[in-house]
Amino acid sequence: MEPLESTSILLIQTALARLIEMFPDRAFDAAITDEYNRAALAEFERIRDFLVLHYCATERDDAPLWNYCRTMGLPESLRHKIEVFKSSGRVALYADESFQEPSWVAIFTGQSVIPRRYDPIIDNIETERLARGLQQRRIGVARAVQAMPTHRDFIARNCAAPPPA
Q1: Do 91 and 101 form a contact (C-beta atoms < 8 A)?
Q2: What torsion do the CA atoms of 27, 32, 36, 37 make, to the nearest 10 degrees?
Q3: Which of the ends of the chain has fewer CB neighbours closer than 10 A, N or C?
Q4: pLDDT tens-digit profile of 130-155?
């Protein structure tokens, strides 16, 4: 794995949490060990898919690396996620995903993986209700921004460099 979205720290945390949950004592039952390994492998595979998506969906063709990445074989699980997203903008999420829908959508759209159509479930949402929800988000974001210090103030308060000698 690579240091993307603090992936290595996440894997350490989830491995430790899984160890504490599944092995609260020193009785290391083989069935529980197998389940621990199954869950860890599933987590690694989901993270692998998220990382590979960054490369396989590239439009770059200025180096052999990018050409390889664009044409390499993909795990079936990632091919499935790509096809589901392309079909209607839905993100196929599984239990205990490390990266949630906004992260997947950001990578898909940032790499120009665009759905062929919108998700038809949106037709069941009243336009006024949707508009109100979006307005509430705008207000929430504006309030959060207002409460934040400027970049200069944050640096001065938290990590200013010492004055030159």
Answers
A1: yes
A2: 110
A3: C
A4: 999 999 999 999 999 999 999 999 99
